[in-house]
Structure to design on (847 residues):
């Protein structure tokens, strides 16, 4: 792949973050209602346990970050929320995840329907080899395409939401594979937004991007949280500190600490969390 | 310096220079082999259509009698004394002052009047060779070419032109005959064909009526009456068409010509027998090129004559292309669906691995085995049962229970399905997981992901499979001989009678045509150039079919470029 898609995390960290006074924000905030409630969730790959009795409350219209060293289970936990783990042979899940009060593992749940409610963006940009327009329209077409005019409107709205409209409005009929890595990732976000989910899962969305693109994605996350519950997995602690309202620290499949980002980063309750944040391991 | 020289041979070896040379040599040999093959069949095949000059040779025959031989000098070869003795049985004639002698193969034509039509003549016995401008070639419907001098044109047996005026008169009358011939062909292929077809349908209707025992007497007799009425109407139509045809045939037979051939005899040819005539000795190069083009066109567009050694090969071209297209239409869904199941739905394990190995090994089964299977299973079992169920009226004459186009296509589809399965599977494997997950994460089901994202991206690989399948199928002959190909098919599998595409009909095929003309023909010398020409055409058709698919694949590849990295 081209150079811009290589992880350049050191560089990403050197870019100044948008200045947001979290402490001030937090003071005025009412506690948000719950979007996702995780209750005693355990997950096994065959006989190997990857998640151990996770309990967690993810609030609505806030950004929740999962941090932790590689292999700690943060991506696995994220992929439980839209049941992407169903695709892997030999996975067993115990416990519950409630989306707005409904158990997503209940047998009567339509997985396709669930995934429309919970959109997902992956580590590497994965646009379809179709035109930019068709990429965004894809999710809608699956649900039964609306009339052309309405479709045009939704596509434009989704692309504007993902802050990429101005860059692509003159080449909607061109292949999405011609875009840069950062543009592709925002296009993929537009694609996820177009089906109007309530939750967006972001699995290390900026790890394959250059610093400028990373910054744009972070700004975008900040804009999107007024409409969507966002859960982001990142191995970049600065990024977690910059974009999230809540932070969960996972280690070896266990949830070590969960709290307001401000508090987790400045005053961690657990020794392990402090060790990780200060860079003693990970 | 000394140190360098010591190691230079070793370093030359270890540098890989030798390896590069071996690579280049292997590629060079392959290209030379393919190029040489194509050049040979192209030169031999294409030379056949060139209107070569007619030589008039004064020849001293074995009994020292001078004869005149007229014909085309086709090819020559040299013989040593030993070879000469072997071929003539007596070396006493061998010229003492020469070490080798040259002999020529002369196409003298006039097969009915003065056989044989090909002769070997020794050059040292040539007294003189001339190319008189008056000599002409007459291509005939039967008995091959006639060579000689046109001396008179006759109408109803009366001479109407001779001397100078003979050629213009002949050309005018020949084009009249051609027009009549076209009209006759139209009636035969159009009206006659349609009437025969409808009569056959009525015969089957009547038979069906006999077999149907649940019909009341009244209904039966009224049905029968309507069939009889229709038959009578068709009979009337037939009689009218026949009268028209007879009139045309009479008109066509009005004119004839007289040709003086090499042994001095006068040959009277009815113009109805003459396809075309030309005087190569007085043609300019431009005229010869024009004639060459016409000859090639006739070869491509006409039906064969004279046990396939004369005329064209259009039905074989048509049959080959139609069979390959049908095969592609059958093999693509079969192979793609099998590959999708193996790769996307089946649980990967030892059983699926076993199936995959079995499918791959199917590609190695000799094609004649498929032919035997096709005959036993498709033709006799499925075809026989279809006849029992749907074509009872035509029994005991089989409809589908006999070799035909559909069985040949199915057999070849079975033969080529492993190729399509393997390359489709390869294409599916190369699609990154992230693309599928992207679609699933948007709420698409597995099937929707498959049809809207996965299969379009895999389409270039599917086409690769089809290209390989077409290349293999178009070249197969052995299984086809068992399941549908014949030496001469009376009708094309596609015509104007409902249902237009007649899948049960037998058809002609270029590969089988080559075998038939080359090895089953009574006239070896006449057949040989046709074998080369047909082989060239078969190669060209396969190249054309492949190029079409490759162009399509390139377009698809451009569209999906960048996905698989």
């Amino acid at each position: 792949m081209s150079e811009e898609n290589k992880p350049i995390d050191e560089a990403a960290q050197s870019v100044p973050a948008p200045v947001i006074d979290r402490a001030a924000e937090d003071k005025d905030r009412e506690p948000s209602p719950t979007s996702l409630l995780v209750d005693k969730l355990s997950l096994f790959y065959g006989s190997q346990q990857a998640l151990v009795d996770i309990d967690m409350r993810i609030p609505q219209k806030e950004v929740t970050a999962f941090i932790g060293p590689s292999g700690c289970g943060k991506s696995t936990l994220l992929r439980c929320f839209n049941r992407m783990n169903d695709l892997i042979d030999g996975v067993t899940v115990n416990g519950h995840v409630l989306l707005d009060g409904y158990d997503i593992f209940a047998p009567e749940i339509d997985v396709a329907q669930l995934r429309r409610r919970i959109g997902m963006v992956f580590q590497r940009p994965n646009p379809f080899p179709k035109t930019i327009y068709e990429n965004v329209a894809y999710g809608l077409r699956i649900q039964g395409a609306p009339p052309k005019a309405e479709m045009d409107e939704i596509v434009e709205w989704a692309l504007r939401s993902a802050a990429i409209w101005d860059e692509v409005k003159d080449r909607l009929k061109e292949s999405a594979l011609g875009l840069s890595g950062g543009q592709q990732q925002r296009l993929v976000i537009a694609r996820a937004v177009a089906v109007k989910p309530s939750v967006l899962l972001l699995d290390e969305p900026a790890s394959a991007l250059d610093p400028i693109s990373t910054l744009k994605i972070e700004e975008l996350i900040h804009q999107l949280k007024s409409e969507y519950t966002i859960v982001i997995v990142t191995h970049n602690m600065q990024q977690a500190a910059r974009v999230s309202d809540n932070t969960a620290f996972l280690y070896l499949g266990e949830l070590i600490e969960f709290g307001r980002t401000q508090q987790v980063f400045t005053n961690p309750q657990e020794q392990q969390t402090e060790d990780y944040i200060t860079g003693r391991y990970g | 310096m000394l140190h360098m020289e010591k190691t230079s041979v070793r370093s030359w070896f270890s540098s890989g220079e030798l390896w590069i040379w071996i690579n280049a040599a292997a590629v060079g040999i392959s290209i030379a082999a393919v190029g040489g093959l194509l050049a040979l069949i192209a030169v031999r095949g294409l030379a056949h259509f060139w209107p070569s000059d007619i030589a008039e040779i004064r020849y001293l025959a074995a009994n020292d009698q001078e004869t005149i031989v007229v014909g085309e000098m086709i090819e020559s070869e040299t013989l040593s004394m030993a070879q000469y003795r072997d071929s003539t049985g007596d070396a006493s004639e061998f010229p003492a002052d020469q070490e080798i002698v040259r002999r020529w193969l002369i196409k003298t034509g006039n097969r009915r009047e003065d056989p044989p039509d090909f002769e070997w003549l020794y050059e040292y016995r040539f007294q003189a060779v001339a190319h008189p401008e008056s000599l002409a070639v007459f291509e005939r419907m039967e008995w091959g070419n006639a060579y000689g001098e046109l001396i008179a044109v006759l109408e109803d047996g009366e001479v109407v032109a001779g001397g100078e005026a003979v050629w213009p008169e002949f050309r005018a009358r020949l084009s009249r005959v051609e027009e009549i011939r076209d009209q006759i062909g139209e009636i035969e292929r159009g009206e006659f064909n349609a009437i025969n077809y409808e009569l056959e349908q009525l015969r089957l209707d009547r038979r069906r009526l006999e077999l149907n025992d649940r019909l009341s007497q009244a209904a039966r007799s009224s049905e029968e009456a309507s069939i009889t009425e229709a038959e009578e109407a068709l009979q009337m139509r037939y009689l009218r068409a026949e009268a028209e045809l007879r009139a045309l045939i009479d008109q066509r037979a009005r004119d004839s010509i007289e040709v003086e051939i090499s042994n001095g005899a006068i040959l009277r040819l009815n113009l109805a027998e003459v396809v075309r005539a030309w005087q190569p000795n007085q043609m300019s190069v431009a005229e010869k090129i024009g004639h060459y083009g016409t000859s090639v066109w006739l070869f491509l567009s006409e039906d064969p004559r004279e046990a396939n050694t004369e005329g064209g090969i259009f039905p074989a071209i048509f049959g080959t292309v139609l069979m390959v297209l049908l095969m592609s239409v059958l093999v693509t869904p079969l192979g793609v669906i099998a590959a999708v199941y193996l790769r996307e739905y089946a649980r990967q394990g030892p059983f699926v691995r076993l199936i995959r190995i079995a499918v791959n090994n199917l590609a190695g089964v000799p094609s004649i085995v498929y032919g035997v299977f096709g005959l036993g299973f498709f033709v006799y079992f499925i075809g026989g049962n279809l006849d029992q169920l749907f074509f009872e009226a035509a029994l005991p004459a089989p409809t589908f229970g006999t070799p035909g186009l559909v069985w040949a296509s199915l057999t070849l589809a079975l033969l080529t399905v492993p190729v399509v399965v393997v390359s489709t599977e390869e294409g599916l494997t190369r699609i990154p997981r992230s693309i599928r997950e992207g679609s699933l994460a948007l709420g698409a089901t597995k099937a929707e992901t498959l049809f809207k994202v996965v299969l379009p991206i895999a389409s270039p690989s599917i086409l690769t499979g089809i290209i390989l399948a077409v290349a293999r199928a178009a070249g197969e002959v052995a299984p086809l001989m068992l399941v549908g190909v014949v030496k001469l098919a009376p009708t094309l599998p596609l015509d104007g009678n409902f249902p237009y595409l007649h899948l049960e009909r037998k058809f002609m095929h270029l590969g089988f045509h080559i075998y038939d003309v080359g090895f089953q023909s009574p006239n070896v010398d006449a057949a040989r150039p046709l074998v080369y020409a047909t082989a060239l055409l078969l190669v060209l058709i396969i190249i054309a079919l492949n190029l079409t698919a490759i162009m399509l694949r390139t377009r698809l590849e451009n569209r999906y470029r960048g996905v698989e990295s």
Observations:
- Confidence is low (pLDDT under 50) at residues 1-19 of chain A.
- Chain A has twelve helices and ten strands.
- The CA atoms of residues 5 and 208 of chain A lie 5 Å apart.
